[in-house]
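Work package 3, deliverable 3.1, input record:
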Amino acid sequence: MSGYRLKSGGLVDRSKRLNFTFDGKRYGGFAGDTLASALLANGVSLFGRSFKYHRPRGVYSAGPEEPNALVTLRNAGRSEPNTKATVVELYEGLEAHSQNRWPNLQYDLLSINQIGGPMLVAGFYYKTFMGPTRKAWMLYEHFIRKAAGLGAASKEADPDRYEKSNLFCDVLVVGAGPAGLAAALAAGRAGARVVLADENAQAGGALLGEKEETIDSLPAQDWVAQSLAELAALPDVSIMPRTTVYGYYDHNVLGAVERVADHFATPNAHQARQKHWTIRCASVVLATGAIERPIVFDGNDKPGVMLADSARRFALRQGIAVGRKVVVFTNNDSAYRSAVDLKDAGVEIAAIVDPRGDLSSPLKGAVQTRGIRLLTAHVVTGAKGGNALKTVEIAPFNPESQTVGESREWIAADSLAVSGGWTPTIHLASQAGGKPVFNAEIASFVPGEALQNWRAAGACKGDLALKDCLSAGANAGALAAKDAGFASGTTPAFDVTLPAHAGSGGSLYPLWEVTRPKGPKGKKFVDLQHDVTAQDVRLAQCEGFESVEHLKRYTTLGMAADQGKTSNVNGLALMAAALERSIPEVGTTRFRPPYTPVALGALAGRETGFHISPVRRTPMHDLHVKAGADMLTAGQWMRPQVYRKSGEDVFDAYVREARRVREGVGMVDVSTLGKIDVQGPDAQEFLNRVYSNGFKTLAVGKARYGLMLREDGCLFDDGTTWRLGETRYLMTTTTANAAGVLSHLEFLLATVWPEMRVQVTSVTEQWAGIAVAGPKSRALLQSVIEDLDLSNEGVPFMGVCPATLDDIPVLVARLSFSGELAYEVYAGSNYGAALWEKLMLAGEAYDLVPYGTEALGTLRIEKGHVAGPELDGRTTARDLGLGGMTSRKKHYIGRPLMEREALNEDNRQRLVGVISSNGTPLRAGSHLVEGKTAEQPGRSLGHVSSTTYSPAIDKFIALALLEGGWEENKDRRLFAADPLRGGHDPVEVVSPCFFDKDGSRMHV
Amino acid sequence: MRIPCPTCGERDVGEFTYGGDATVARPAMDETDPAVWNRFVYDRENPRGAHLEFWQHTGGCRAWIKLQRNVLTHEVGASELVGPWSKPSEKDAQTKRQEPVE
């Protein structure tokens, strides 16, 4: 094909020249061009290489259905692979690259795949590599994947911003062609809140660029402009150009992407590149139009072969002649408009080839007066050329017997405009759940019964004539408004005039594939983007993949990025022919979102990087940062990991911190613990049912450690609960489980025991908490608390007392996670920072050290206290050595199933302590095995859950879950195997409590 | 998917957390037969059609609700509050109406 810019015509602004590059070469175009039209204007015919065979491909269409002209747009972090050149609006400085070729587009070495073509049929890779030769796949996969494919994604971060927003309306109209405009007008006039979305920059749809039609005595262009002006004046109507409604979900929720700045090189300041819209509406009008479909013949993918109406659109919209000598091949009337309009624009039409025996006289007249050669009862049997089309082979055809004659004629042409009829764009309707039905008149599927509140109108419903589109659109718009509660007046009748050569809609002769009676059997493509041929479809049928679902998956027909917009119906027709069934009997597959590919950035919106989830900070956060703590995320919380001093690494720091706690005093921010206020006359009974240990005897002013089980008997959560008053408790949960525990309690109170007078409220963020631990903790606290005696008598172990610290009202609870004499001091969140500062200041005299989560872990592991890694959802209380905390005297959640035999077997994995025998640090996730070597590890007997270096015993230690528990295994020589990261080290199995076994240190 | 919350009105599914089959009743606290508990915890019908489900409006009023939902057509029906907030007389009437239809 050697396209060129016509002297006049089109909607482009010829005064505004734009420069762009394709594969590094500089070109010029005009404002209003697409990348495809601008390249055609420059005589470029080769756009890319095909997916599997690396065949040269040109531009096939002028719209979103484009299977061939895929390019990588922009560069670096902004690079966008597989962009359809036909929908890219040209901008100054645009940079595009062709794809799937090496070393370059003109000379692609991998086009050798064409020669191996007969081998690369459907299922080739499975047949070749999935049997005994599977090992070969491992070897060749890399090369095969490289040979087949599309563009490559950028590995750099996208510098642009994407946004997400919600939109509510009464009536959503998808498509701003004649039907959509009429629908929006009808619904808008009725007073409904209307959104009219269209994927193109300009509204008008099929009317865009038309010169001859009139609607209500106005030229079509003027009618579009007038309609848009009226819509813009209506207060509740919004028009959204460059917005693709890509998905139709349940309950009239639709997804749309607005390409806010894709038509600029880079977005303007503060502008998003794309915006994702979640649209919720009462009612939808689908006016999505129709897509022309190809006819399948030998060489139908040659650069220069394209859809007939697309050739016409390039002429009318961008003033482009797609070639110097055009052959039109059509089985219906619509392509005659292409022939006539191109001819009138000054393009040579070499011939019109039509399988039909006869034509309507106005059509014939229009062709004859222009002196175009008309070959009725003929078909195109082949297209020839290398990187560009050179000749078209035609043969006589008998439409009655459907046979191709043997004589041939070759017509020189650089462009072949094909029309096999029109396929309604039923994607959204199909997604919405209505099963498509076959319309024999247009030989295609149209939307079926609506299962949600939508109605299709216009070409999308199979009404191809302009007058029908307009009235159906108006009707649908009025009914949609009515469904949303807006009564409308009478729908207007439209007065439409068309040119004589417009033809009629019901004139299609179903012709799917042309086969030469004899001669070469070249490749005939059904799915151009995935290189699926007619032969592949028949092969699938031969091999038993007869259902459409199997056909699709076996041949990958329609599974490319274009979702088979131009190939779907042809594929079904060929399968129907192979099975000798009708197309509706074969059926069609359901379309899935998205209608066109959606950038992941648009789906993510602003929720990337730092903003991927909310950040929760404790009231003391700024003080930790100021003190130079390494902040680490724990779920959504930011927690200090260690407070490193200069020269220290994380290891040095946590060892120092943990040692200081055991020797003197340390403090840690525990504000992240989940806290639930439990109040009510039945609170005590409620707690007694949700915890496995007794809560009936808990006195006011005391705390108790409790275990919570799931209904299936496994451990759910643990924590202390403090009785603050007769009917008031403060429950603490693990940091990670806070939300889950609250929901669990709410569920029980709502659904199981609605009669219980208990209220639960999350107070996690209302309290700041600091654990002060170590032998000197009592002295330190007593130095700042005057109104409470902190002695063992004043605040006994597990005692909870209100006090005043300096002038801050606090709760002091004598709890110990570290195994040392320790207190937790709670204050209202607003006091948190002041409390921390006052304690730091008072602590100077005691050499107080703040410690982070790392030392917190060290201290609890030394004591064998369980936490998240041990409460992994599979362990029972007995597994963790907490069997004594499961009451035998009461009924509580989880008890009946906890008592199941299998959960009480002696060989279950139970909590043990593990010491590294050779001084190698242990790693969480390592498996405990008997095998002495990494090569022969043997069966996994358990796994390491929490690890640390223990300053108390000067060894690398860990908690682990091991079959049979520690006493069974204490004399066994086991290994911690870590095959993924490497490591196989001997360990000693000991009691999980490594330090101060009798607990005397915390009871002083 | 949109879910009608009895207190907040129709909201997006993203605000809710699924809470399981609402036709399953928890055995009495003093029930000791493990088979009964086993059925309660593990046995679920999975009818092709109408389901009655628990949902919590975690991103809203936090109420637990019972929701009628058809897993075949994705239709969402009526919802009701569960717990002490639903009036007993009304609740009984609604429960009857909301029994899943085969």
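Residues 557 and 650 of chain A are 56 Å apart (CA to CA).
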